[in-house]
TrEMBL record:
This is CS1 type fimbrial major subunit. Keywords: Signal. It comes from the Bacteria. It comes from Pseudomonas deceptionensis. The keyword Signal applies. Residues 1-22 form the signal peptide.
Amino acid sequence: MNNVALASLLAVLGTLPAVAFAVDIDLQGKVTSTITATVSKQNNFFVTSDTGGWFDQGLKMSQSGGLDSAYAVQARLKVVSTNRDFQVRLDQPLVIRNASNASKVFLQPIVELNAEGQAPKTLAVATPTVFKNPVQGVAGVDSIGYYGLSISAYPPAGTFRETVGTYTGVLSLTFEPVISNL
């Protein structure tokens, strides 16, 4: 009989809703935390023309000397950088080619960059050349430097009649900030 009573009691208890008991818990020790966040200024690195734009129409080379002198063009660049140090390299050799006769190319192209008031540095393919923007007088302000980009090349061999035409080329440079521990 005891087994029947126990089974009946369990059956009745199984049909009753569950009852939850509220219990107060007393926490001991540290129960709050302070979280501190720091927002840092983003590092900037911008290269533009000296007026803040770019050379959408390209750069036009001109020949100021005789027929055997080099063609040249200069452009002024503005570099804005959080870090003063940066490097520049040519991505590929500069080839200035005749639009209607691909065998006619300019000879000995030279690409140079210089900080204002400094001697020019010749840029090379896959070889970074390091430059340093001027020191800013105010802490936390990006450094701004102005640079002269110079491109020169000699015209193709031949007479004026043989080499006349429209020549184009693509100058591809990579400017990269250099992270320093200063």
